[in-house]
């Protein structure tokens, strides 16, 4: 095998014929090679079966694994028979056999080996000693896979790539460890493992070959690639990685944007940020921040590092990290919201002055919008199911408040929905937050972007009102982040197209 980082597809077919077909599909999809998980087969393979499977790879790298139950696999038979199977695979031409670290040195099969350790409980107390012991073995490659509780554990996995003296695979399993899989090539890992399709994962957190090749631009990643990501919980279905990586691709910017699941709570956010900033070698230059960490982000960056309107909002969604580790915070949500609205109305921001705007909802989504339009002189009334919450937000920004039921009789010119009512997969899907459109309303802006045509916008379109989609707001906030981080004009069309394609896919 050559020294570059390999993209291997782990195959868990139940019979030899299906696994042989899966080898061909994986390579056709863009995998560099395959891992044959023989423990997944319903019956032990013969020498001829192994020869057929290795031959199906047509010279591409083949790792043969027969993982026992004790290390998260499916093999529950005789240990000696398992080791003999691996020995036969080595003799039949496997590029590598995977042998568990707890197999005594004298019992390990001969041949090119990946010496592996899997911990599904978390991070071992003596991780450094474990890695050093594996480094001293006769195996050609180390593999350490750990269950991540957060992306800080993924950083600890990446530490191993720098600490080990031989080629190493270091993976943090589970959704919070995605960074270690996606960015493996940047940090010089021997390989990363992928799945042939969603639902066919051999280990928690594996991405598909198509995702790594497509969304995460595997071929474009190198040692000098700058790292970016989105912090939130949940983040698995965030469109931010797709939209930002598409922007990098369209402009030729050498960047990689990854999901970073950080569990709720100030301490969890701070723990990850501290771990990230302690590792400047990651080349992380920017972070998007979404629910529930926008307020934590402003607190961490500090008010001195944020603009005045972000401080008034009390939250940021964008962190920029310069080469010296100095942080700056921005809130591109408010700029995106106000500019999306003004563009649709064909006015400048100052043109909002004196216009009556009804804002539905008093949560985090409405806060940036209210701050922005009030800043430019709009007369804002906040309508919310819990009146007390609306009154509190209104007091902060010099606005009025009313119960949500009163919105049907608003005298506003503009209605902006900042509630989740009508959102795809939400319990309110298919329902509009307004029972009727008041006659004074000329413009309806729904900040929801999935679906692009919400029940509220359909209601407004049918009534002949000007409709403003949250899709444009979503693209605008991401485009401004791209500009802040790269200094380049954002490829808005490319960014919008990728979101539209994602929304249209089943």
Describe the structure.
The protein is α/β, with parallel strands linked by helices and 506 residues long. The protein has three domains: 6-223, TIM Barrel (Alpha-Beta Barrel); 230-333 and 475-504, Rossmann fold; 343-473, NAD(P)-binding Rossmann-like Domain (Rossmann fold). The protein contains 17 helices and 19 strands. The strands form three sheets. An eight-stranded parallel beta sheet has the order 7-6-5-4-3-2-1-8. The chain has a six-stranded parallel beta sheet with strand order 16-15-14-17-18-19, sandwiched between helices. Strand 6, helix 5 (151-163) and strand 7 (168-173) form a beta-alpha-beta unit.
Any chance you could write out the topology, listing elements then pairs?
Blueprint: E1 6-11, H1 16-29, E2 33-37, H2 47-56, E3 62-65, H3 79-91, E4 96-100, E5 113-119, H4 127-135, E6 141-147, H5 151-163, E7 168-173, H6 178-182, E8 191-195, H7 209-213, E9 226-232, H8 240-251, E10 255-261, H9 266-277, E11 284-289, H10 294-301, H11 308-313, E12 318-321, E13 327-330, H12 332-345, E14 356-360, H13 364-375, E15 379-384, H14 387-397, E16 400-403, E17 414-417, E18 443-446, H15 455-462, E19 466-469, H16 470-486, H17 492-504
Parallel strand pairs: 1-2, 1-8, 2-3, 3-4, 4-5, 5-6, 6-7, 9-10, 9-11, 14-15, 14-17, 15-16, 17-18, 18-19
Antiparallel strand pairs: 11-12, 12-13
Helix pairs in contact: 1-2, 8-16, 8-17, 12-13, 12-16, 16-17
């Amino acid at each position: 095998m050559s020294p570059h980082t390999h993209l291997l597809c782990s195959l868990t077919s139940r019979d030899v014929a299906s696994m042989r077909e899966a080898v061909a599909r994986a390579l056709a999809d863009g995998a560099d090679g395959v891992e044959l998980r023989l423990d997944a087969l319903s019956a032990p393979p013969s020498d001829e079966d192994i020869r057929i499977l290795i031959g199906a790879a047509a010279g591409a790298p083949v790792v043969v694994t027969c993982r026992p139950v004790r290390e998260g696999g499916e093999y529950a038979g005789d240990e000696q028979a398992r080791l003999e199977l691996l020995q036969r695979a080595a003799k039949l031409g496997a590029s590598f056999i995977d042998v568990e670290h707890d197999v005594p040195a004298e019992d390990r099969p001969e041949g090119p080996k990946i010496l592996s350790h899997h911990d599904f409980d978390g991070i071992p107390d003596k991780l450094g000693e474990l890695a050093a012991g594996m480094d001293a073995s006769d195996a050609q490659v180390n593999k350490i896979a750990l269950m991540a509780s957060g992306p800080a554990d993924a950083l600890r996995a990446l530490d191993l790539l720098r600490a080990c003296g031989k080629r190493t695979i270091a993976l943090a399993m589970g959704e919070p460890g995605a960074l270690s899989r996606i960015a493996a090539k940047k940090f010089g890992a021997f390989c990363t493992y992928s799945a042939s399709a969603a639902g066919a994962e051999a280990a928690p957190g594996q991405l598909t070959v198509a995702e790594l090749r497509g969304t995460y631009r595997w071929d474009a990643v190198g040692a000098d690639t700058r790292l970016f990501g989105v912090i939130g919980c949940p983040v698995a279905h965030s469109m931010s990685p797709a939209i930002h990586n598409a922007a990098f691709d369209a402009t030729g910017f050498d960047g990689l944007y990854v999901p970073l699941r950080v569990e709720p709570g100030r301490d969890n956010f701070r723990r990850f940020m501290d771990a990230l900033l302690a590792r400047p070698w990651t080349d992380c230059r920017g972070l998007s921040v979404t629910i529930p960490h926008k307020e934590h982000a402003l607190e961490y960056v500090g008010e001195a590092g944020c603009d005045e309107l972000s401080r008034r909002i009390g939250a940021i969604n964008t962190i920029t990290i310069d080469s010296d580790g100095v942080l700056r915070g921005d809130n591109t949500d408010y700029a995106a919201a106000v500019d999306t609205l003004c563009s649709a109305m064909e006015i400048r921001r100052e043109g909002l002055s004196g216009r009556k705007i009804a804002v539905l909802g008093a949560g985090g989504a409405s806060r940036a919008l209210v701050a922005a339009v009030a800043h430019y002189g709009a007369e804002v009334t906040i309508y919310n199911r819990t009146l007390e919450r609306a009154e509190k937000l209104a007091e902060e920004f010099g606005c009025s408040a009313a119960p949500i039921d009163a919105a049907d009789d608003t005298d506003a010119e503009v209605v902006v929905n900042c509630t989740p009512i009508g959102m795809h997969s939400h319990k309110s899907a298919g329902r509009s937050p307004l029972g009727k459109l008041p006659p004074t309303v000329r413009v309806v802006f729904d900040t929801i972007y999935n679906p692009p045509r919400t029940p509220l916008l359909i209601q407004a379109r049918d009534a002949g009102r000007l409709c403003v989609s949250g899709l444009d707001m979503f693209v605008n906030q991401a485009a401004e982040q791209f500009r802040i981080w790269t200094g380049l004009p954002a490829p808005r069309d490319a960014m919008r197209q990728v979101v539209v394609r994602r929304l249209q896919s089943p």
